[in-house]
Amino acid sequence: MKYDRETMIFTVSQLNEYIKGLLESSTVLSGVSMRGEISNFTAHRSGHFYFTLKDETGQMRAVMFRSSAAKLKFFPENGMNVIVRGRISVYTPTGQYQFYVDGMQPDGVGALAVAFEQLKQKLMKEGLFDEAKKKPLPPFPKRIGVVTSPTGAAIRDMINILTRRYPLAELILYAAMVQGEQAPEQLTAGIHYFDHEKSVDLIIIGRGGGSMEDLWAFNDERLARAISACSIPVISAVGHEIDFTICDFVADLRAPTPSAAMELAVPDVQALKKTLRDQFISMQTSLHQRCRMLRDQISALKNSRALTSPHYYIDQKRMEVLQREQRLAALSTILLTHNKQKLTNEIQLFRRCAQQILPQRRQQLAAAADMLHAVSPLAVLSRGFTAVSNENGTLVRSVATLHPNDNVQLQFSDGTAKAHITHIETKQES
To answer: Which of 135, 261, 263, 412 gives 233 a disulfide partner, CB atoms 3.0 to 4.6 angstroms apart?
Structure first.
């Protein structure tokens, strides 16, 4: 189609549609990969992801629809460097071109590794890995539930270990896929089944070794939460010793391999027998020694005077009692004499002290009495002085407190007298 540049006039929408057609018809732009850093990330409730991809000098808006976002093994975050795959087109209502993302992977680190670390940090913050929540294993389990594939080498190894070490226990298998899209759901269902039925004393969940992709079912969040909430102790035995999954962190115990899990789950019956034999021999030896000691004691008792000559034994004990009574009487006499002499000495000492101290105390008392008499008001009155008090009994210290017609009381050394004030003269200052 040819356009006359001078006469053709587009509407805004027409021009946006035209530009959109140009972009989508490009073989390069219709399937292109781009590296950038995620910013302004939004996970819409519809399931779509909206974000911006940027580098040091530029940025581009991007969208990832729900159908593509659901396939991701990790959750995108701001600041994450990623490589996206998709196409460039125009959103015609706004005229903005943007990148429509069909696929995404972390730049430098695999998507599975990022998803593993994200889930690990999330569950750790929630406390699902706390050692305080770990349940102890039963020492002698009667029934052991195993959640694994019925055809794998793991179940055969565990059966062989159980048969050899502890054939008294019963193994109950819950068949489940251990890899693939359906594996997480089936493994989770196995944990729920045993937890609900309460038919086992211990649960082992696991599989043999493989790649990270092969073991990925054991990194499922639903499975991790089911193991954490299970009331029955759970042993996780996934892969080889170097393999770690989320199940290993939430389980009550991690075993490096399925065979090691069964060895940890049950005791060795041969070792138990040896321990019992050793304990029996030790108890038998101790019992023999005890019996020998008792026989020696009985033999000594049979030969004792108490049994062979009881009258002699009684006379001997009576003599011992008499001797003790005599010693006690002698000690009592000595003690009584000693205490009597000690008391006599103390009485004599007290008398000597009293004879020396009493005259001194009498002199001190007489001197104090003389001093007290000298300052006594009665002594002052005996020298011709009189104490005057008003009707209230208050001592009159100044003529200024008296008024004509006041009644007062005069205190002499040998008695009292009442007086009536008729006239008051105040001493004039010179």
So the answer is: 135
